[in-house]
Amino acid sequence: MSLWECVAVFAAGIGAGTINTIVGSGTLLTFPVLLAFGLPPVTANVSNTLGLVPGSLSGAFGYRRELSGQRTRILRFGAAGLIGGLGGAILLLALPSTAFDTVIPILIAVALVLVVLQPKLAAALRARRARNNTTAPRDGGPLLLLGLMLASVYGGYFGAAQGVIYLSLMGLLLTDDLQRLNALKNVLAALVNGIAAVFFLFVARFDWTAVLLIAVGSALGGQIGATVGRRLPPIALRAVIVLVGLAAIAQLLLK
To answer: Which parts of the chain span the membrane according to its record (predicted)?
Structure first.
């Protein structure tokens, strides 16, 4: 890479780390930049996944205060995330690069609808449980666990708007503050990216220069994202999620 290409990749890494910590979809910044500089799609995807691991860890550390009291969730959801992330990484190398092209925009669109409607849907679920004198399943029950595992398969495969899908599922099935759910989302993203990265280190081709530039940039962006993200009120955070998700859909459909 030339000097200016290195600067562009580093800047994209900062942006990706920031956006991933606040919402998700940072891949939509770094992946197109790597493609523009001549990396093959699979190599670019693998390099991007490896580079974003430090950013995910940085974002999770930045949100450590909101993780207090969520140890059981981290262990439970993290196990599902590791299994799903490894499955997605295997699929990336086994399936053609266009395999998910049709499904991904629809998946993100459904997640955005859930994010927008989440307060009303959650209130309706609580009212229904009150009428039926039932309680919510502990930590979202098997439905949430299965949903997070499937979302992690997608995360290990590509990961654009992975955080949007996590937040939509947890926001609907868990009764908790959106910032605390966002902190949990960052841990899940770190685990999924991490397990996929370990797998790719041994079986896939990647560009070390791109990996290092994105790694340093995303780690810095993770701290920026944690500082900005925790200051956003729920309605503003929800608006950011929707805007980023719509941008993701537009980019995927127009590529």
So the answer is: 7-34, 46-63, 75-96, 102-122, 143-167, 187-204, 211-229, 235-254
Residue with tokens 């800047």: 11
- The whole domain housing 46 covers 3-254
Report the SS3 class of residue 218. helix
Q: For every one of its 255 residues, what pLDDT tens digit does the chain have, with 9 covering 90 and above? A: 788 899 999 999 999 899 889 877 788 788 888 888 888 877 888 898 899 999 989 999 999 999 999 999 999 999 999 999 999 989 888 877 666 667 777 777 877 777 777 677 767 777 777 777 766 677 888 999 999 999 999 888 877 778 888 988 888 888 888 889 999 999 999 999 899 888 988 887 888 999 999 999 999 999 999 998 888 887 887 787 777 778 777 766 776
In terms of Cα–Cα distance, which of 160, 181, 159, 169 is closest to 114? 169
Alpha carbons within 13 A on the beta-carbon side of 35: 10
Query: What's the one-letter identity of residue 22?
Result: I
Please count the structural domains in the chain: 1
